Amino acid sequence: MFNTVAVVGATGAVGRIILQLLEQRRFPARTFRFFASARSAGQQVEFAGQRITIEELTHTCFQGIDLVIASTPDETAAEYLPSAVQAGCRVIDESGYWRMHSDVALVVPEINPQEALNAKGIIASPNCSTTQMVLALKPLHDAARVRRVIVSTYQATSGAGLQGTADLLEGSRAALAGTDYQYQVFRYPIAFNAIPQIGSFKQDGYTSEELKMVYETRKILGDDSIQVCPTCIRIPVSNCHSETINVETERPLTVEEARRLFAATPGITVVDDPANGQYPMPSTCDGSDDVFVGRIRRDLSNPNCITFWCVSDNLRKGAATNAVQIAELLARHAAK
Amino acid sequence: MFNTVAVVGATGAVGRIILQLLEQRRFPARTFRFFASARSAGQQVEFAGQRITIEELTHTCFQGIDLVIASTPDETAAEYLPSAVQAGCRVIDESGYWRMHSDVALVVPEINPQEALNAKGIIASPNCSTTQMVLALKPLHDAARVRRVIVSTYQATSGAGLQGTADLLEGSRAALAGTDYQYQVFRYPIAFNAIPQIGSFKQDGYTSEELKMVYETRKILGDDSIQVCPTCIRIPVSNCHSETINVETERPLTVEEARRLFAATPGITVVDDPANGQYPMPSTCDGSDDVFVGRIRRDLSNPNCITFWCVSDNLRKGAATNAVQIAELLARHAAK
Prior knowledge:
The structure is a homodimer. With about 325 residues, chain A is an alpha/beta fold. Chain A contains nine helices and 15 strands. In chain A, strand 14 (about 290-300) and strand 15 (about 305-310) form a beta hairpin. In chain A, helix 1 packs across helix 9 (about 315-335), helix 4 (about 130-145) runs parallel beside helix 6 and helix 4 (about 130-145) packs across helix 9 (about 315-335). The longest helix of chain A is centred in the C-terminal third of the chain and has 20 residues, at about 315-335. At the A-B interface, strand 10, helix 5, strand 11, strand 12 and strand 14 of A face strand 10, helix 5, strand 11, strand 12 and strand 14 of B.
């Protein structure tokens, strides 16, 4: 139980869902305060039957707050969250900025809850495309040791924030009408297109989004020997990321064993009855908190590999849900 | 030079482009005849300044025809093309039905032209998702021997024919308007969604489309030891298939070597300057006859692998262009 919980970035695509989840899941706190940039400060939001005014994020706003859940751009997290830690807050951060810092915990509660409980400073929530993959990898890693992962993503526009989805919808409307549309966040039209770039290009021709899938996976699973080769692609889906995941394990797994391992993992739902047209899709996973796995099959090209399809709501388990689950973990612990 | 060339399935998504290509590329023939099902027979089409009436496809329609280019559903190809062979026609078939028959040549002209020239019966054109991949693999295979391929596809709705694209556009309009739309060819809504099924489910949890990528690749490259693990996904793009392709070669290739090999291959265009935002996309490859390759990079997880992104117009090089190129090859040979 916390006295005062703050949500920073409360008006963003993820922030809005964090508020919904705190309300729906009756998060145990006496007071909730919501912060955003000066542009959004002063707006009112409905929360648990009250109207709460959005306050402006400042370096001195964290006094008297026990827990901060922040979902902001990287530069905002870089600038403001150290002030929250200094003010004595527990801090859960959705941004990419702090995740790989050596003194920051990077947590998926089903995988490494203890690191959240032990954290002295910021607790980071992983990148959306990483979270769903790593949750699916975890039971396979525990059972058979994951050696190598080749992953291709099919990422939704909501990962680029509210304007990302607006770009998709307005861009699609314009394309269907044969008119022009000036995209705000995408470099190229995303309507009826696929863009092989998410984030910026870093070393070896990989993007920042792809390298997150390499390094965050190792940190969360606590195994730097896991090899990951990712390709991240933006597609014209408004919400839910999908991934084709090919996993090589040290010990070969049968499809039946992999299916059992997935099914026994909290947070994973197996939807895998292809003969009856049952597999996860963005349209069926939107709004759910779980990671959905289907099309589980042996890799025809290597007996130590299995391959599957993984879909999850990137704003939920990929972001808001994971952060709120970390907060709930801290609250349960604080209650003891 | 042929006297009489027939196009069967002339009113379909691929058939229309075959007609365009025959006209634009001034295919050397004295007479062109166009066939379709009874439903479309009697329609007129503009071709090279003439109006040509679509004739009905029958078992006896092939008399006096030298070359047949057919783009029809599998069952139509199964039923009618043997009559064309019996009538003495050279036959190029776009359908999936004949490709893996042992006495049928499966041809990509840049790869195995001699098999088209030697063919006694039907010459098949490969599946769209296979053609672009195998053309990209060919120079790597010649230089370093391809051992294993892991491929994930991002396939356009035009691969499901004219109604596939109508489904995408009408379904998108309806989704944006908040109204219902009854999809004709897709099992689930394709607008703003990703569907992990193309074709029907066959053995080991793989779809017919995926198994085509396994078996056709081996047949075209003439190497049954090549291992392929495909996952085929339909995305809301109207035209051009994209693929992430991870290739393991016997001899390790550097990125520079792979790029040189791609660039030196007729039919491949390298678009690979990520620092300047240059990579292939459906929006930029639509209407082109080449296979486009970009994001060429080393696989971080295995020194014997490179990985890249491949886009091609599935109605062109994936279908019509490849068939017309085979026809041109036969015409050049017939002229000698």
